[in-house]
Amino acid sequence: MAQNTSDAHILVSMTYVSRATQEISAKEISEILQQAQHNNAANAITGMLVFKDNIFLQTIEGSRARINRLLYSLIADQRHNDLQVLETRELAHREWSKWSMNYVSPTQDNAAIYLKYSTTADFNPYLLSFESIRGLMRDLSR
Ligand SMILES: Cc1cc2nc3c(=O)[nH]c(=O)nc-3n(C[C@H](O)[C@H](O)[C@H](O)COP(=O)(O)O)c2cc1C
């Protein structure tokens, strides 16, 4: 489908949370990441993905038309469900311009970061304000 060029220059960001439909192996995460990085590089989409306790948290940024199209694909993707859009906005500049898709896997080292933004050390972005989520993603990528 040809891209609607009328809004090709409008840069937007969209952040969502979703649940893996089944236990996800390291191999499956790496397949999702490879697919994301490959497609995103071709579509000038950048972003950040976090996966922990079977929950995905992802920000994608790029042209409004392409971000909307990717959202439809993500919603149709049976590897996850219960997708909730947390925030979408127009951007003056990209936050994740260095990465076609940055990925942070949870470690003991970043447990303190979860505690910093929530009432417990659990990772549950469904229960966090977007301000906390933004801080969490920035800290995790440092
Ligand atoms: C958690 C998760 C994150 C994903 N992130 C991306 C992404 O950033 N970019 C992308 O193109 N596809 C991503 N996908 C895959 C899409 O849902 C969809 O399968 C893909 O865009 C279809 O690409 P294809 O037309 O090349 O098969 C993701 C899938 C999951 C489950």
Spell out the key features of this protein:
single chain; 142 residues; alpha+beta; Alpha-Beta Plaits; five-stranded mixed beta sheet; 5 strands; 35% helix; binds flavin mononucleotide
Strand % is 25-35%
Q: Can you tell me the number of structural domains?
A: 1
- The end-to-end distance, rounded to whole angstroms, is 37 Å
From the structure provided, what is the oligomeric state, counting identical versus distinct chains? single chain
Structural class: alpha+beta
What would your notes on this structure say?
Helix 3 (111-117) packs antiparallel against helix 4. By secondary structure, this protein is an alpha+beta fold. Helix content is 35%, strand content 28%. The chain has helices at residues 26-43, 64-76, 111-117, 130-141; strands at residues 11-20, 46-52, 55-63, 80-90, 102-104. It has a single domain, classed as Alpha-Beta Plaits. The chain has a five-stranded mixed β-sheet with strand order 4-1-3-2-5, with helices on both faces. It contains four helices and five strands. Flavin mononucleotide binds next to helix 1, strand 3 and helix 2.
Give a brief rundown of this model:
This protein is α+β, with helices and mostly antiparallel strands and 142 residues long. The chain is built from four helices and five strands; from the N terminus they run βαββαββαα.
Annotate the secondary structure layout.
Elements: E1 11-20, H1 26-43, E2 46-52, E3 55-63, H2 64-76, E4 80-90, E5 102-104, H3 111-117, H4 130-141
Parallel strand pairs: 2-5
Antiparallel strand pairs: 1-3, 1-4, 2-3
Helix pairs in contact: 3-4
Bound molecules: flavin mononucleotide.
Flavin mononucleotide is lined by residues 32, 35-36, 39-40, 47, 56, 58, 60, 70, 73-74, 77, 79-80, 101.
